[in-house]
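Hey, can you fold this one?
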Amino acid sequence: MSIYTLHRQVRCLDKTLCGNGGKYSTGDVLFSDRGKRIVLGRYIAEGGEGSVFAVHLPSETTLVTKLYHPTRRMRWREQKLRLICSRPIRSSSLHPAIALVKKFPSEASSPPAIRPDYLSPSSVKSYLSCSLRFFFERVAQIRKSTTVALHVGKAIHATLQSFNLARWQGEDSSETAMEEAFSTHFLELEKTEGPVDYADEETRQKVRSCAWNTVKAYMDSDEVSSQMPRGVEVGLSATIPGLPVPVRGVIDLVQHDLTAVDYKSAAAKPDAGHAAFDHELQLVTYQMMIEEATGDTPPSLDLIYLVKTKTPQVIRVKTPPADEQRKQRIADLYRIAYEGITTERFHPQPGIQCSWCQYRKECSEWCKEVVQKSFRSLP
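Sure. Predicted structure:
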């Protein structure tokens, strides 16, 4: 049994609705939608989302309540609370808690929807791949431990950025300097990204050595042109007709001839056709950004794969620039994703990706709740 309970439509005893800048205070009496009488006790804290109090309920232990401000009550936040309420937590240092979600007359229709300030290729691809995973990861922001592959990929990417910036700025880009940079990035990411799923220290050291050898293979390869890059980690944006927010992205490397380059780390040699198809959204977006910023079309949209095999490989996959039809198709994907996110269409999209998804437990609980609701609504 969960120690959390979710109550909605909380009202003051005298029917006066709190909120809109009004302050709750100790001694206020509230009623839940289930008719439970709740007395606010000691004030604990005030945050951006709402107020926190100790509460007293008849015949129950002292609990803790969070009362949300009217502008902070949204459907996705309520979904997040339901997930919290579905989890039993056992701790000698924690008392049971009750989550109270305030409902106001001005919200009689529907709570405010999600309004992102911008979209990115990664966010749109995430939503289109599985909108429910998008919700868990980017809206509810449920943190998960960092996978080994993600940690290594970020460490490699950060080191390549350091390497290209050093070359671009005329600084030390030697192997010794970059090995030091790699070590720094590897350790810092472990701290900032949370725990990494390494089996043991021996495995961690083997993975670390393999990753550095992969970076070194790139530095020694023919892919490192004698020409200085035109830009490193270039942040650009694009405007899409019918989309009320801009599209933003960061291009890993822009070569002297405007070729856009994105680095990928992989465990096996990629298939060129599949790679170009899988990353079309990202690459065509980069083309649209460069065209809007410079007025010129890049001659190529390239992926450089750093393959973490026993003998590391560096493979460039070249893709021709998109024509107007392809760009229109990508623009349609952005409009579809924006409409889905802002109308909060979040549902599972089962596939092979479910086998390695970190949100399988949350997805299972969500599906169970939907089925139960469907049965309750039957005549």
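The chain has three domains: 4-107, 116-142+226-349, 145-220. Let me know if you want another pass with a different chain boundary.
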